[in-house]
Design goal:
The structure is a homodimer.
Chain A (H helix, E strand, L loop, with lengths): L2 H11 L2 E6 L5 H16 L3 E5 L17 E2 L4 H4 L3 E5 L16 E6 L10 E4 L6 H12 L5 H14 L10 H12 L4 H9 L4 H11 L3 E3 L2 E6 L1 H7 L21 E7 L4 E8 L5 H6 L4 E2 L3 E7 L2 H14 L1
Parallel strand pairs in A: 1-2, 1-4, 2-3, 4-5, 5-6, 8-9
Antiparallel strand pairs in A: 7-8, 9-10, 10-12, 11-12
Helix pairs in contact in A: 2-4, 2-5, 4-5, 5-6, 5-7
């Protein structure tokens, strides 16, 4: 049996699911989780949808976003089957202390872990939302308008609304089918790209004022002070790392987000063939070829130098 | 016969075409014109592709862009059949003094003119490129990779790369087919959206650092000093006025560009129903409901106050 067939038979044979996705959830995680929950419930199954972090304000256009809970007691989960979405280890979802009856992983990130009784991992697929789309079609589940909106949004977020190099003919075909099923492309794009809060926009302006370009590497920074001044959250920085990609001669865009004193969460974005996952791995991080991340403990100047050396060395 | 069938039989019956599109051509005009020329030449026909203005530098990724000429003598055209693309009167293409054997119009703009022996005008279609795509399929012409890139780019430009409200299931299906025929979505999107010069990007960062929001009006400013510092030109500010539209609760975005001492070129952008043409008219400017402009002579503070009063008064 293929991994997909395995998952299909598992979902058919079980009734009570705990769908969890990663910390700081973005559109692909949220849309995939909500859509899968709706699909399983349409078959009369029971689902809990869990994310440890709250749904960011600007994703509340997703129908059914309020299905997502961030409170759970470990007692509740023992008889449930975990479906871990858009990530592949329990700690990425902050559920490492919970126990489950079964564990399933559906993800499109590279992984070397063995977690999961059943694993369906497709690193070459642009979005977990596209995997859920395939799964639902395989199971013959009707794609309602609400499911379509969630899956369209999931795919749109992870392909930069069809602008990234992972945008294939298959992605566009799925988007066309989801639009036919009731997803409104213009509304979803406006919700994703033109629904920023004022404070989030001010934070971006501040981040861009830190722009530094060395060789063909662009650096921008958000400090804890900036979060305080603009009353924003780490989730407000989603996509900041992509903004410097607008420049034609930028090879790598590096976004620093201060977490604790002296700790930086680093998001790396590249164009075309430059593999930033390789860079992130040197700092115990990981990701995809064009989008990766890691954490560095150093002062900002040193952190920039370390990354620049790693990039030059590749 | 439908207009499309009329065009098909006309193209089959004739051999020598003069394909022209509008002044200041953008992606839909250029891609449509080049693709149609390639398609007709694949049938052994002869084409001249004309635009009075040169192909902008950032559209030179279109295969066959150098088929487009901007020199022509009136003597040459008398035996040719004009195909006017993405506009509907000869003056929009700067060819009002030329004479042709026949005249054909293929366009998706509203029109009240009667120009054209044969007219195929579909204002509800998002892009002329989509009409050419339908035409080629109707004629059974093979969509080569070069044709696919041109048509994909044409459709992408006029739908904001699938973000505007005109993005339909049909648009996405066509895009999927063109991607299958060899158009590379990531490369095309990068060519359209991620080919800014560093200096243009730095200018944007500077402009955003001037952000001021009063009520639901966002103001950003570019001064002559900023142009000097970044070695940029007024044309580099194209689209700056749209950037603050990213915020969900902004009614009007106002972009000030300093021309001469004390003179400001003002670009106004709005969302949905707020009519900025009415505001611009109060300052002897004009435009459309969601995009208008005017010139104001005043110090910046006064100019902001004047605009704010006009906006509050509407």
């Amino acid at each position: 049996m293929t991994p997909l067939e395995n998952i299909v038979s598992f979902l058919k044979d079980n009734n009570d699911f705990f769908i969890a996705t990663h910390l700081n959830p973005e559109g692909d995680a949220l849309g995939s989780a909500i859509a899968l929950s709706m699909a399983l419930e349409s078959l009369g199954k029971n689902t809990v949808v869990y994310d440890k972090d709250p749904v960011p304000e600007f994703y509340k256009f997703l129908p059914g976003y309020n299905k997502i809970t961030n409170s759970v007691s470990s007692l509740d989960t023992k008889e449930l089957s975990l479906i871990l979405l858009d990530c592949n280890t329990p700690d990425r979802a902050g559920i490492e202390k919970l126990t489950f009856k079964h564990t399933v992983v559906i993800d499109h990130h590279e992984t070397e872990t063995n977690f999961g009784d059943i694993k369906w991992v497709e690193p070459q697929t642009p979005a977990t939302g596209l995997m859920i789309f395939k799964l639902l079609k395989e199971m013959g589940i009707k794609i309602t308008q609400d499911i379509a909106v969630n899956l369209y949004a999931a795919i749109a977020v992870d392909t930069g609304t069809f602008r990234y190099s992972n945008t294939s003919s298959e992605v566009l075909k799925a988007a066309a089918e989801l639009a036919e099923a009731g997803a409104n492309p213009g509304f979803i794009a406006e919700s994703i790209h033109e629904s920023w809060s004022r404070n989030r926009f001010k934070l971006l302006c501040m981040a861009l004022s830190t722009l530094e370009i060395i060789d063909s590497v662009a650096f921008i920074v958000v400090t804890k002070d900036m979060f305080n001044t603009t009353e924003t959250l780490p989730s407000d920085t989603e996509n900041f790392s992509n903004v410097p990609r607008m420049m034609k001669d930028i090879k790598v865009s590096v976004f620093f987000r201060e977490t604790d004193e002296g700790y930086w969460k680093v998001s790396l974005r590249s164009k075309r063939d430059f593999n930033v996952a390789r860079i992130a791995e040197q700092f115990d991080g990981g990701g995809h070829k064009n989008a990766a991340g890691c954490t560095i403990k150093a002062d900002l100047k040193t952190a920039k130098r370390m990354l620049l050396e790693a990039i030059r060395g590749q």
